[in-house]
Design goal:
Elements: E1 3-14, E2 17-28, E3 32-36, H1 43-51, E4 58-63, E5 66-67, H2 73-79, E6 81-83, H3 96-102, H4 112-116, H5 120-138, H6 156-169, E7 174-178, H7 186-203, E8 206-210, H8 214-220, E9 223-228, E10 231-236, H9 238-242, H10 245-252
């Protein structure tokens, strides 16, 4: 499979704090790659570099063979780079449907005046967008029953699903999921994992995932990249990475007598 994303020797510092240090890896098209590591390892900062919210001090980010290191976030979105956030970032006063439609904004052709004055072309485009969103996104994520509900009144698990729906409205080629099952109960987690697998298997969307639930990581991932203190300490297939000595030390410190040998779900950082 061809690579769709390459992170090349990326470094990032805030003042005297080195957040990312020569981070490099690639993401294969049509696969699920997970980035894991203890708290403070630099995972979300890495996502912010890939998404364009942070500009690295050194290194480059390549998407589909193009250097996007200096591209603005909305330009990356127009190329097919979608994202969800660790903390839900929805417009709480808007309905689920209106939030989802906002995800397709980079593909809207009507200008500000046409939209502001509700010209026929803009109205037709909005109608087509609504029909596409309902057909391709809302039905897929099984949220027909909440599409007209303000997101502020939705349960947490459904809000996370609406945020995923907004990212899908972009029609992404690569989807960055920042802790998609954080705070969910078991049933919600299983539903979200099923949706992620279906995105890859049925729609061919490539997924780059940050997640603390190591059971989800082990079940979903084709490739795992482990960060610790801003550096890549291991990468490879999930079962191999889970047994890597550097990974065990990062999560456990030292292996306690009688502690399970793996996989990731058995590892905890000592306090």
């Amino acid at each position: 499979m061809a690579e769709i994303l390459r992170v090349e020797n990326v470094s990032l510092a805030f003042g005297g704090l080195q957040v990312l240090d020569e981070v490099g890896f690639s993401v294969e098209e049509g696969k699920i790659t997970s980035v894991v590591g203890p708290n403070g390892a630099g995972k979300t900062s890495l996502f912010n570099v890939i998404g364009g919210f942070y500009r690295p001090d050194r290194g480059r980010v390549w998407f589909d063979g193009r250097d996007i290191t200096r591209l603005a976030p909305h330009r990356r979105a127009a190329l097919g780079l979608g994202r969800t956030f660790q903390n839900i970032a929805l417009y709480r006063g808007l309905s689920a449907l209106d939030n989802i439609k906002l995800g397709a904004h980079p593909h809207v052709r009507s200008g500000i005046l046409a939209c502001g004055f509700r010209l026929p072309r803009a109205r037709q485009e909005e109608l087509e967008l609504r029909e596409r969103v309902e057909r391709e996104v809302i039905d897929f994520l099984e949220i027909e029953h909440v599409r007209g509900v303000p997101v502020a009144s939705l349960p947490y698990g459904l809000q996370k699903r609406v945020e995923l729906a907004r990212a899908l409205a972009l029609r992404p080629r690569l989807l960055l999921l920042d802790e998609p099952v954080a705070g969910m109960n078991r049933e919600e987690t299983e539903d979200m994992a099923r949706f992620v697998l279906d995105l890859v298997e049925e729609r061919g969307i490539t997924v780059l995932l940050v997640e603390h639930d190591m059971g989800v990581v082990m079940d979903l991932s084709d490739h795992v990249v482990v960060l610790n203190f801003g550096r890549v300490i291991a990468q490879g297939r999930p079962a191999e990475v889970a047994e890597h000595p550097e990974v065990i030390r990062a999560y456990l410190g030292t292996r306690r007598e009688g502690a399970p040998s793996g996989p990731f779900g058995a590892l905890q950082r000592e306090g």
